[in-house]
Amino acid sequence: MSAVLEKPVVGRQPASLSVQPLSVHIGAEVRGLDLRRPLDADTVAHVRAALLQWKVLFFRDQPLDHAQQIAFAQQFGDLTVGHPVFGYVDGFPQIYSVGRDRKKARFNGPSVARPWSGWHTDVTAAINPPWASILRGVSIPPYGGDTQWTNLVAAYKGLSEPLRRFIDTLRGEHRFTPPEGAQAQGYFNDKVKARPLVSEHPLVRVHPETGEKALYSSPTFLKRIVGLAPRESEQLLALLFEHSVRPEYTVRFKWEPGSLAFWDNRATAHLAPVDIFDTDFERQLYRVTLVGDVPVGPDGRPSSAIEGEPVTAHTIE
């Protein structure tokens, strides 16, 4: 199956399928499906069409196991290895564990907190970041631990026209580094050195299916704007990062056991919770990602790799 999926041909909507928007710009809850079972072609097309419109879809009461999560995701494209740098779950190389203490295992010391701290688009250090991610909740705190997403197409549209014209011409460097102010643990350094990934992407990405322009803002990974002086880059990125996570562009999801989030990684960024570190509650989720294409900017120029290889469905050694 090709990593770049053609626009779905949407036929008759299944009677049981319901798509309920959760905010003006982003997020919808999909009801009436049992994701443990294969979906027919019309249902797959309707789910993909809803994803393109709402950027992130949420499913409740879906008690999937690892194999069922993989099978569901494969109906929408080829799967990558769980994470190209940080590995995968034993026995399930397509699955990445998103556990409560994952961050603590990588970094120590306080980081600098900014309004956009922690927001990111998955694996943008790669030349071809995953086109979509699917996250499944298993052990969920009774309160806290919500995840947020933002619509980067809406964020781009919300900029002034002169600024849009300027950033249409720019490119940014994406890489894995510790959060500002924090120190990397040996685990993080060892993994990043073993599989370095550094890429130059357009600051504005043209969506390959919808043609929409998205502000390709991934604050955790986007480190500098190529060609600008350091101070210019710092100030412009701060403006764009802060703008991209304005509340009106976002949706916040409260997890339950059996919840599933499916998002378009080409048009969104998301924020993992940090409030869970103030409790002793267990929190365990599992993620799969779908092989993506190389981003292209408004000028038609594709991204370029500085270090590392493309993320494919066959990167497991």
Based on CA inertia axes, which overall geometry fits? globular
Number of domains: 1
Stated plainly, the CATH topology is called Double-stranded beta-helix
* Class per helix and strand makeup: alpha+beta
Brief characterization of the structure:
The protein has 317 residues and is α+β, with helices and mostly antiparallel strands.
How would you explain this protein's 3D organization?
The chain has one domain: Double-stranded beta-helix (4-Layer Sandwich). 21% of the residues lie in helices and 25% in strands. It has helices spanning 41-54, 66-74, 102-106, 152-157, 161-167, 186-194, 230-244; strands spanning 18-21, 28-31, 56-59, 96-99, 107-108, 119-120, 132-139, 147-151, 171-175, 183-184, 198-202, 204-206, 213-215, 222-225, 250-253, 260-264, 268-271, 284-290, 304-307. The strands form 5 sheets. A 7-stranded mixed β-sheet has the order 1-2-3-16-7-18-4, covered by helices on one side. Strands 6-17-8-15 form a 4-stranded antiparallel β-sheet. It has a 4-stranded antiparallel β-sheet with strand order 14-9-11-19.
Name a few traits of the molecule.
317 residues, Double-stranded beta-helix, 7-stranded mixed sheet, 7 helices
Layout of helices and strands, plus pairs?
Layout: E1 18-21, E2 28-31, H1 41-54, E3 56-59, H2 66-74, E4 96-99, H3 102-106, E5 107-108, E6 119-120, E7 132-139, E8 147-151, H4 152-157, H5 161-167, E9 171-175, E10 183-184, H6 186-194, E11 198-202, E12 204-206, E13 213-215, E14 222-225, H7 230-244, E15 250-253, E16 260-264, E17 268-271, E18 284-290, E19 304-307
Parallel strand pairs: 2-3
Antiparallel strand pairs: 1-2, 3-16, 4-18, 5-10, 6-17, 7-16, 7-18, 8-15, 8-17, 9-11, 9-14, 11-19, 12-13
